[in-house]
Amino acid sequence: MNKKTLRDVEVRDRRVLVRVDFNVPIQEGRVTDDTRLRAALPTLQYLLDHGAAVILVSHLGRPKGKVVESLRMDPVAARLSELLGRPVRKLDDCVGPQVEEAVAAMQPGDVILLENSRFHPEERANDEAFARRLAALADLYVNDAFGSAHRAHATTEGVARAMRAQGKPAVAGFLMEKELTYLSRATEAPDHPYVVILGGAKVSDKIGVIRNLLTHCDRLLIGGGMANTFFKAQGYAMADSLVEEEAVEDARALLEEAAEKLVLPVDLVIADAFANDARRKTIPVGDVPDGWRVLDIGPQTLERFRDALEGARLVVWNGPMGVFEFPNFAQGTFALARLLAEGDAVTIVGGGDSAAAVNQSGLADRFTHISTGGGASLEFLEGKTLPGVAALDDR
Ligand code: ADP
Ligand code: MG
Fold it and tell me: Is the CATH number of domain 182-382 3.40.50.1260?
């Protein structure tokens, strides 16, 4: 990685502003899933162990530039305090005199959590003056919010530039470093054989990912709703299946350009309604009967995918193989997860729903890396520059 990290800078006795991704689900004033808080702990523990004072900032939900009581960070501070085993002081704003006073009084080992950055419209507008005020709070900026790195907002992008203008470092945290290190294996000098598996709802969401990864991989397996559009391009009737008419031309072009790399399903699980308790049938690829829709890949397809994965050294997976939210149509997705968990390849998963599916499969610890950043991981796999990363100091 060509960006500086925490290890490259002095943190002792410094005030460190850390952009974290604490956009967590909250119900009745409690954090109901603390995965994102835990993901930031290596960075936070390192800073505290090395004598820094830590100022945390994150967005939470979509308050649209004004204070929304239910989106205050207090429940996050409470849970983080339990995880760190030390007090976390939560402030009621992220800039302003109260914040400046509290920060000025910090000692090494102190932790402050600033209020939801999106209470200010300046956050999403990436307002320069706002970014300068944030930067002025600290001696050092650490970005550990990989999941927000594809957004050029004040706390993810503007503040890094403001730090540099103030002669202060802006570096990557350990979660950010880990994400970039693993995801870059997909696009920079990957190990071969390299197999990419794509699924999920739409071709149009993923066309950039398909095109970029096709230039690197040896095989590209396609499943999920996305495959329907390819079958449509091949001339099959897809009945009530999810098909994107406007992406049929793209699919046709890909079928021609990349015929030798593409592996499509050979059988499909269809349903007579979009519901878990719908009637089910497994059919070979062909016309889907009227009134039916494709909701999963079939067992022959899994055999075909198993063959295509044989000997792979690197596998990148994005997109569920079916509507895994319905247990009756989750088999293709979970069987694929088992296939990857049992293999010897390095396995990297990107995408929010894909990560959720792998977590649900109970096999998450058998994967090499499951990205914590949904949209950010997709933009990375598309080969786009993430503004929150680009703004950090180069090595
Ligand atoms: P990710 O978030 O991992 O990038 P996507 O958002 O592209 O994945 O796709 C996930 C969604 O795709 C899931 O909600 C799933 O139900 C849906 N999906 C998968 N296969 C089908 C299908 N055959 N028909 C309709 N929806 C599907
Ligand atoms: Mg998704």
Answer: yes
